């Protein structure tokens, strides 16, 4: 009887106490989840390193979970990662969405669960946010401004009427759209001609294939404006293989380490630095601030700087 009584009491206690997976963080520190795009992209590896360094310096202030997807198009996996963070009951999610529209509903579910959500890198679509009746603050650079600065620097090296091509990012990504617009602003102002504009989906290999075809179809092409540096690497490789390196000028966006020597060599003319090592940190700090103050959401613009051979020597 005594043994049966003890078993019954133990069972009742087990039913009344929440399971470990329901309790959320084991400490009093808030848990911040960083959900990024492709970890195959050096830009996001740098972003991850910056976030981990920030956390290491403030380990007593918050806990950090870092996640990413295999490539820029793996949107469904990124949705799953957010759902996992909701299930783990993190306090905040800092997200660089692979798609500006599709990730909004799951982020709204996170907010409905009491989780602070901060949008970095790629801004959520304003119309979809309005439809979902949700406000998610964006912490990041003005991508159009950065791309325009790169395009203006390039235009000084070209002549009115010269043919150029644009390699776009993922068409559904807001930052891809804004960078294309920034390039177009500079191209129009300089009187250049857009001979082609198509998406290489942020990917080096796809950019290589597109540029290889373009320089055959457009032998008088003078420049390729790439919406990120990964695509710029693919463009340079295609030009090198065709013995046209230097004849066709290449610009990019991100200032990843792989392009910095190419800037010095003149293989890439210019890029834009949005400070990948700090971009997640800006979002994390805003999330921690919001958890403390419960302030209403508001966007925050972060720096983006033109980088050339000269500026990267500094």
What keyword list fits this structure?
single chain; 314 residues; alpha/beta; Rossmann fold; four-stranded parallel beta sheet; elongated
Question: What does this molecule look like?
Answer:
The protein has 314 residues and is α/β, with parallel strands linked by helices. The chain has 2 domains: 26-139 and 276-302, Response regulator (Rossmann fold, 3-Layer(aba) Sandwich), CATH 3.40.50; 143-273, Response regulator (Rossmann fold), CATH 3.40.50.2300. Helices cover 46% and strands 19% of the residues. The chain contains 11 helices and 12 strands. It has helices at residues 2-16, 42-57, 75-87, 104-112, 126-131, 143-155, 174-190, 204-217, 229-241, 257-265, 276-293, and strands spanning 31-38, 63-69, 92-95, 116-120, 138-140, 163-168, 193-199, 221-226, 249-251, 270-273, 300-301, 305-308. Strand 8 (221-226), helix 9 (229-241) and strand 9 (249-251) form a beta-alpha-beta unit. The radius of gyration is 23 Å and the shape is elongated.
């Amino acid at each position: 009887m005594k043994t049966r009584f003890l078993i019954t009491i133990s069972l009742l206690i087990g039913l009344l106490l929440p399971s470990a997976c329901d309790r959320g963080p084991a400490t009093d520190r808030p848990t911040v989840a960083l959900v990024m795009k492709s970890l195959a992209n050096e830009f996001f590896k740098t972003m991850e390193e910056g976030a981990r360094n920030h956390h290491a310096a403030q380990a007593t202030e918050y806990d950090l979970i870092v996640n990413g997807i295999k490539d820029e198009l793996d949107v469904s996996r990124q949705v799953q990662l957010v759902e996992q963070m909701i299930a783990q009951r993190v306090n905040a999610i800092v997200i660089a969405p692979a798609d500006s529209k599709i990730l909004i509903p799951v982020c709204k579910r996170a907010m409905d669960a009491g989780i602070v959500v901060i949008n970095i890198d790629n801004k959520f679509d304003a119309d979809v946010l309005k439809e979902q009746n949700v406000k998610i603050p964006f912490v990041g650079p003005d991508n159009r401004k950065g791309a325009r600065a790169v395009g203006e620097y390039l235009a000084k090296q070209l002549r009115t009427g010269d043919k150029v091509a644009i390699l776009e990012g993922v068409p559904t990504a807001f930052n891809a759209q804004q960078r294309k617009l920034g390039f177009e602003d500079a191209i129009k102002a300089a009187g250049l001609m857009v001979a082609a504009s198509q998406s290489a989906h942020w990917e080096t290999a796809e950019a290589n294939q597109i540029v290889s075809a373009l320089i055959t179809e457009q032998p008088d092409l003078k420049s390729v404006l790439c919406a990120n540096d990964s695509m710029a690497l693919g463009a340079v490789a295609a030009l090198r293989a065709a013995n046209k390196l230097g004849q066709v000028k290449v610009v990019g966006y991100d200032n990843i380490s792989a392009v910095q020597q190419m800037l010095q060599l003149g293989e890439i003319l210019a890029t834009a630095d949005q400070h990948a090592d700090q971009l997640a940190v800006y979002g994390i700090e805003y999330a921690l601030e919001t958890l403390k103050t419960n302030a209403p959401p508001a966007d925050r613009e972060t720096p983006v700087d033109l980088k050339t051979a000269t500026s990267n020597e500094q």
